[in-house]
Structures are given as C-alpha cells and as structure tokens.
Specification:
This protein is α/β, with parallel strands linked by helices. It contains 8 helices and 9 strands. It is 44% helix and 15% strand. It is globular.
C-alpha cells in the first residue's frame, strides 16, 4: 500500500514524539527518506535513531522550525543527501493556553510565529525547491478542531489553526500548476505523551467523543500518509477533521 512513496523524501517538523513521530514511522515503512525535525535536540536525535533502528532512512535536524534560515537548511539538506524533496508535513506547533482578557503580547506573537510563520515559510522554501525539480510534490499542514469550534482559553491558538486551513486553500491557486497538492489535517483529542500528562484526559474525552474514545497517533498518521501519497494526487485544498465526531456535537470538556 502507498508504494508511490518509495524513495520519496519528506521533511516532517515537530516530530520528536506524538503525531509527528508516528507520521515519520509510517512514511519510513512506506519507503520514504525522512528529515526529522524537533526543537528539542535530544528528543529529535532519539526519534531519528528509533526509525534508523528499524532500517529506516532518517536524518535528525534539531532546530526552530519557525526560523526561515533553518527551514532553508532543512530543504537544502534533503536535496544534498537524498537528491530531491517531495513531501512536507508542517506538523510543528505550540499551544499556549490563556484567558483572552489577559493574554500577553509575547504569547500571542510566539503562537503566530511557530504555528503560522513556520507553516508558511516551510511551504514557501519547499515549493520553490519542488518547482526547480519539476517533479511535483505534496504539502500537508496540521490544523486542529479548535480551528472549527470554539475552545475556552485557546483564542490565539484556534485562530492560527483556522488560518492554516485558509493558507492551504489559497495555495491551491499558486502551486497546482507545478503538480503540488496541499491539504490540512485537523485532529481532535489525541493520545500523545503531552495529553496523557493529564490523568483525566482519557476519561474526559472518551465521555464526550461520539465514537467513545480519543484518537491514537496512528489514527492521525494513517490519514497523513494517504494525503501525501500519489493515491491522493487529486485531493487538494481540503481539510480532513479526525475527531471521532466531536465537532459534530461539540460538548465542552469542562
């Protein structure tokens, strides 16, 4: 399945653990070469080593995925080592909770820088490379159900996730002629190392998710691999919500 991914090269940001790492693992199993990024250097190297231990082709590149110079370094490394760049998964993002009435300027602009700036400039650098190659490519952005449904204390975060989905739609008008498709995934409650720090997380989200449980990282990664494969070549400008039906009913976790 997804044999079209064999020998393709992918950059995945924010992939030291959780959804990003699972996407890397599944892309690697499909035969992709991986540039694995995370801002946490030990975590980044550890994640890449895990994939390498399974005979995967993976290079770790720790660094700030919202920094344009570093983004260009990742693109250049992909081309230098593997000859071309075919896939980008802009998974990196931060969640800084805060009451709207007291939310700080520092927190606001950091969320915008990482979630929006990182996605925008990674796409820009990658598509410029893909244009040169004339081989097409695939962009995948990571949104959230909070870009579709209000969630208390996540005004800035939800705003960036809605904007990411609009970016994907807009890029259809600019990158399609080069054989590049662009889509977005919007996960709902998902079991990751971060969310499981909350001892009530599984109980709370199992109660309010219509399908009866939160998603696993594999649930999200399975969709990601499809959307960057040739099997999804004619899918572009779309956002796929993966939330067990939560946004259809939207009960509050509080």
């Amino acid at each position: 399945m997804f044999s079209s991914l064999k020998n393709k090269t992918a950059i995945v940001t924010g992939a030291g653990q959780g959804i990003g790492l699972e996407i890397c693992k599944k892309l690697s199993l499909a035969g992709c070469n991986i540039i694995l990024n995370d801002i946490d250097e030990p975590l980044c190297h550890q994640a890449a080593a895990e994939i390498q231990s399974q005979q995967g082709s993976c290079i770790s590149m720790p660094g700030d995925s919202s920094n344009k110079d570093f983004i260009q370094q990742m693109v250049d490394k992909a081309v230098e080592v593997f000859g071309a760049l075919h896939i980008v998964v802009a998974n990196s993002g931060i969640t800084l909770y805060g009451d709207f009435f007291t939310y700080t300027e520092e927190a606001f602009y950091r969320v915008l820088q990482v979630n929006l700036g990182g996605t925008f400039f990674l796409s820009q650098c990658a598509t410029n490379q893909m244009k040169k190659q004339q081989t097409g490519g695939s962009l995948l952005f990571m949104s959230s159900v909070t870009g579709h449904q209000a969630h208390k204390n996540l005004a800035a975060y939800g705003m960036t996730k809605a904007a990411i989905e609009m970016l994907a739609k807009n890029l259809v008008s600019e990158v399609s002629e080069f054989g590049i498709n662009v889509n977005t995934i919007a996960p709902g409650a998902t079991l990751t190392e971060r969310t499981l720090q909350d001892p009530e997380y599984i109980k709370t989200w199992s109660r309010i998710t219509p399908m009866g449980q939160p998603a696993t990282v594999s649930d999200i990664a399975n969709a990601a691999v499809f959307l960057v494969s040739d099997e999804a070549r004619h899918v572009t400008g779309q956002s796929l919500i993966i939330d067990g039906g939560w946004t259809s009913m939207s009960p509050s976790p509080y």
